[in-house]
Amino acid sequence: MRTILLIGVVILALVLGKLYVFPKSEAGKAEGSAGGTGKVKAASGIPVDVYVVGRESLENQIFASGTVLPNEEVNLMAEISGRLVKLDIQEGAYVQKGQLIAKINDRELKAQLQKIEYNQELARKVEERQKKLLNVEAINLEEYDITNNNIRVLDADKEVIQSQLEKTEIRAPFGGRIGLKNISVGAFVAPGTPIATLVQSNPVKIDFAVPEKYSPNIRNGNVVKFNLDNDPATYNARVIAIDPKVDENLRTLRVRASAPNPAGRFIPGMFVKIMANLEANNSAMMIPTEAIVPVLKGKKVYIVKNGKATEVMVQTGVRTDKKIQIMDGLQPGDSLIVSGIIALKHNAAVSVN
Length: 353
Prior knowledge:
By secondary structure, the protein is an alpha+beta fold. It contains four helices and 22 strands. The protein folds into three domains: about 45-60 and about 280-350, conserved putative lor/sdh protein from methanococcus maripaludis s2 fold (Beta Barrel); about 60-100 and about 170-280, Efflux pump adaptor protein, beta barrel domain (Elongation Factor Tu (Ef-tu), domain 3, Beta Barrel); about 105-165, Helix Hairpins, CATH 1.10.287.470.
């Protein structure tokens, strides 16, 4: 009897254990198994941060190196041969337009001019007498025409001598400062002999070059800023000319600006740093620079599409300190991956944080 009672207690214990202990354990296993699957899924996707692509306002600023040029510059040279009898300049001095710079000996030319004037006077008297004779038919028309032609030839000869006399005087074609002299009084000069350099530096021109992609944004009349070395001040210049063609070797566009220089602060030949504010782009597509991956064929980024990293080739534009403009390849609303890029591959599964 006692044995039967003991067997009954054991059977009851097994039934209770089946109902209350083992189901919970299996349920715990099932729950643990389900939780493990979630972790596997999370672990199977690379955790990444995304940036939603949108449009924003972009202030276009470009920086370039420039060179100061004179507004006008010319090498004063002799046009005819002769001895230099006058050099009325002081190096570095300012001269007015039309002021006499140098004078070449002109005595021989003046003598030739006087000879022609004497012949002209005689030819006019002959012409007056022959005209009276022609009216009474004392001479024929041919003789009168020859005399008239002699007068015209003498007028042309006089014009030639007068032009030669003008060449004996070298005058300033514009107001400016005289450079260093290359010759002294008494020297014999030939055509093309340099006398001095004349420079006009108020205003000055500033030449610089910008990448060809900015060519649509550069316009005549645009104001640019520039700085000099060891000078904290900022100066303004206005664009006055744009080269009609792009340099095919450097792929740059030459631009010329003009700046007032009443105090002579800007000396031709100086180096300047240019900053140009171009027209603002109110619909620029900007992304963080760390999202760009340089590759052999250009640049690429990764976007999230259907839970996977999708590789996209892009074309870039203006770069700021933190962002870069996307010209082509992305659309507003794309989820751009900005972290964990080194570990990504095309079609790799990702998990967005």
